[in-house]
Write a structure and sequence with these properties.
This protein has 420 residues and is of the alpha/beta class.
Length: 420
């Protein structure tokens, strides 16, 4: 494989890398994920390629908090996981925690696969500083995550954590990781309140829903010109939080008569579909994950609802297209995640048995690279890695990474994608 990954290219050269979020038992290494095989997850979960009928999720433009288009800048030269090469360090481990099995496993696997690229690149260039990534499957379930978290902090070889992946599990386990002063770098948990808990070890590697919600809401109203929008969420920590952020930005376009909630795990959305159909909106904004979004949009189309289906990072995964088929055509999907540069996509496939980048694969690489850079600098303990990230300022494949005192990125934008 290549020893370095090139920086962002022009948008026209970007391969598909849809983006997803968060909010599913064991603290041990999961064999299916450890193999790096997309097939091992039970589906083409990490594939960013064409889905049903040739449809795929394609990047359209980048927007700011006012919903206005902004230029996609390549920034400086990205920091690579290989670093300068030749680093030395004692046996060191980092952990990855997130859904590696379960209905939303694609979201966690994409992050893990991105991390795999960084780990392989680093270890090849630094044979005297071999770093191991230990996988902890939470299934994205907050209760299961609280069983896994003590196993992570109890492993003294682990000095940093990539995750947790979902907002709900991050809320549930945050106090545990904070007490242990274990660096928690999330590639995907976007609920705004996560950085208001006083956790000094927690850093978010992407825009939160307080950025995504207003950005998308204003984009729908001011750019796409929608006059009536139904807002539906899945009652999860992530979904409810995102809906609460997008609703004010939609303003008078929100139709309170078709605002509703479904539940994670639902498959029959007939009541909500009839609610939406009766309102005859221009668009339906769904705040939730692809496992429910796919059958929901199918049932909307089967009922004759032609309103544009809009959703965010929890849905922005190739599995949404694979599971939803032609019903997903023309869906508008947002994400705080960045599309994957072509060379990264090629390396990603080599490392992960042919899988293509998906939701937060690029962020998984970038955040793992930041931890590896700290390790290469001589850091061997948890407190040192927390301090390293606190003062970090560097270009990644997706964006510039620099955090404020709360653990939020100093600057962040949102991408708009479309199923075509």
């Amino acid at each position: 494989m290549r020893t370095a990954v090139v920086g962002l290219a022009a948008v026209a050269a970007l391969t598909l890398a849809a983006c997803g979020s968060k909010s599913t038992d064991s603290g041990s290494t999961t064999s299916a994920a450890a193999s790096g095989s997309a097939a091992a997850s039970g589906s083409a979960a990490a594939s960013g390629g064409a889905g049903a009928g040739g449809l795929s999720i394609q990047p359209q433009l980048q927007i700011d908090k006012d919903g206005k288009e902004v230029s996609a800048s390549s920034g400086g030269t990205p920091v690579t996981a290989a670093g300068k090469g030749g680093a030395t360090c004692p046996a060191t481990s980092i952990a990855m925690a997130g859904a590696l099995t379960g209905p939303n496993a694609a979201l966690g696997l994409n992050i893990l696969y991105g991390a795999n690229v960084a780990i392989e690149e680093h270890n090849k260039a630094n044979p005297n500083c071999t770093v191991t990534i230990k996988q902890f499957d939470t299934e994205g379930d907050p209760q299961k995550a609280t069983q896994v978290a003590p196993q992570i902090v109890g492993d003294t070889s682990v000095i940093g954590l990539l995750g947790p992946a979902f907002s709900g599990e991050t809320e549930a386990t945050g106090p545990i990781f904070n007490q242990a002063n274990l660096l928690s770098l999330t590639a995907s948990a976007t609920r705004v309140s996560l950085t208001t808990n006083g956790w000094t070890n927690f850093f978010r590697g992407l825009a939160n829903d307080g950025v995504q919600g207003p950005s998308v809401g204003k984009y729908l109203v001011n750019t796409l010109g929608y006059k009536k929008v139904c807002v539906i969420d899945d009652s999860s920590s992530y979904g409810a939080g995102l809906a609460a952020e997008v609703t004010p930005a939609l303003g008078s376009a929100v139709d309170g008569g078709c605002t509703g909630q479904v539940k994670v795990g639902d498959k029959d959305f007939s009541a909500t579909v009839q609610l939406v159909k009766g309102a005859a909106p221009d668009a339906v904004f769904y705040a939730g994950y692809y496992a429910e979004a796919a059958p929901f949009v199918q049932q909307l189309r089967d009922a004759g609802v032609t309103a544009t289906f809009v959703s965010a990072d929890g849905t922005n995964d190739p599995q949404f297209v694979s599971q939803g088929g032609q019903a997903t055509k023309d869906a508008v999907l947002s994400c705080p995640c960045g599309p994957a540069p072509e060379e990264f996509a090629a390396t990603y496939a080599q490392v992960n048995n042919g899988a293509e980048p998906g939701v937060y694969s690029v962020e998984g690489y970038d955040l793992t690279t930041i931890m590896l850079t700290g390790i290469d600098s001589g850091i061997t303990d948890r407190a040192g890695l927390v301090n390293f990230v606190k003062n970090y300022d560097g270009q990644g494949l997706a964006r510039q990474y620099k955090w404020d005192s709360t653990g939020e990125l100093a600057s962040s934008l949102i991408w708009i994608y479309k199923v075509q």
